[in-house]
Every structure is written in C-alpha cells, then in structure tokens.
Amino acid sequence: MSHSSTAPVCEEAICKCAEPFPERLSFAFQPIIDFKTRSIFAQEALVRGPEGQSAGSILSKVNPDNMHAFDRHCRIQALKAASRTLARRGELLSLNTMPNAVYDPATCLRTTLAAATANGFPIEQIMFEMTEHEAVTDPDHFAMIVKSYKDMGFTTALDDFGSGGAGLTLLASVMPDIIKLDMELVRNVHISPVKRTILSALVEICDKFGIRIIAEGIEVKAEARALLDLGITLFQGYYFSRPQLNDAPTADDINWTIAG
Known about the structure:
Layout: H1 7-18, E1 26-34, E2 39-48, H2 55-59, H3 67-82, H4 86-89, E3 92-97, H5 105-108, H6 110-118, E4 126-130, H7 139-151, E5 155-161, H8 168-174, E6 178-181, H9 183-186, H10 193-209, E7 212-215, H11 221-229, E8 234-235, E9 244-245
Parallel strand pairs: 2-3, 3-4, 4-5, 5-6, 6-7, 7-8
Antiparallel strand pairs: 1-2, 1-8, 1-9
Helix pairs in contact: 1-3, 3-6
C-alpha cells in the first residue's frame, strides 16, 4: 500500500527527520563527466569521516533508528561543502538519498531547500541519486518520491540500474531523468558481447524516453571506449578521476584519453 501525505505521516516525518545525527562528516567529490562536450556534468558528494575516513566508517553507524537523520544531515552538509565551488561553476551536485528514509518529500526536504537557499545553491543544480540497496517493497511510494523531486525542480537519477532491485519494471514506474548503470554491467564490458547487447537495447529504450545514462565504475580505457561506441557519453570512475576530499576536481584534472 502506498504512503500518502496525511497528517500522521507528516508528523512522523517531522519527528524522524528532526533527530540529529551524532557524527561529524566531511565529503569527497567525484566528477561525472560528459565526454562529448569535454565538460563536467555533475559532482557526486561522497560521505567521509571528519578526517577523511572511509565511507564505511560512517555508514557502519547508520541504523533504522537514525537513518532518517543521517539522510537529512548528509544532504545539508554536502550542500554546504559544495556551495564554495559548484554553484558558481554551474555543475550539478549529485546527492545520494535513501527512499526508505523519506516519508513525505515536501516535509523531509524542507531543510534541504532551506540549506540550498542559505548557501546560494540553485535548486536546478541539485541531482538526487535514489540509492536503495534493499528491495523496493513499495514501488508506488518510490515513484511518488521521484515525481515529487522532479516537480520541485530537482534532477532525478535511479542508481545501481541493472542490480537486483533496480530493473526495467522499476524504470517503467519511476521514469527518472537519469539512470546510473550498476558497475557490474560496466565491468569488462569490452570483452562481454552479452553486456554490450543488453546495454545497446537499454540505450535505445532510454533515447526514446529522453532518459540519460551514466556509466559509473569505469576503471580502464577499453571499458570507456566500448561504452562510447554504444552511444553512452556520461562517465564516472577512477580511470577519469578519483574522488577529491573537501574539493571538486575541474575539467583540467580529468583524464580525457580514450582513443588509441
């Protein structure tokens, strides 16, 4: 049964989202590049510990009781960290969010909108990556969240597309602006005819509906070349740029070499 924006749900959302997350955070930024234009399409904010410790050091402390507070705290702190550079550069800020942490989008994003305004960060430069490592048990609620985000002016992306929980059925009900391919579809794509056939069909489907594709986790030149041959031009991965702590790489920092 899908959730609705009734008063009890909103009150629960306010309560859960208002709880503070006790850990200090920092962020590393990894670019998503547009190879066609040789420009940076977006910068993904990746959570780190206060001294740059791994994401795992923070995520290991997230549990069902503080998940809502963590999701909210990450969005606000990432906006603050990104406002120093990304707003004036016109690049998208990609924020990961957990749909299960959102009861009512308008309520739970209220502080995010306030943080964007306070830091002079344009709403149209924010992209939400819907990250859901658990099964999507309520597709209607998930679709409602994505639609609400789009209606508010955010760019929406379905992360880990092609993994167990994010497939064509979910795509048909959600229709995001962007999908990010699961890394397993990208890994060794240059030596896998099966993966290339699957991705070729997916490119055709997405083109028909105006959905863009990001290939993440690219580690070698041959993977990038194979994906480019398939018509995919938005890339992310260590081959192009590693995450940079407390700063965002520029186009001059990117390894643009694919040919040869």
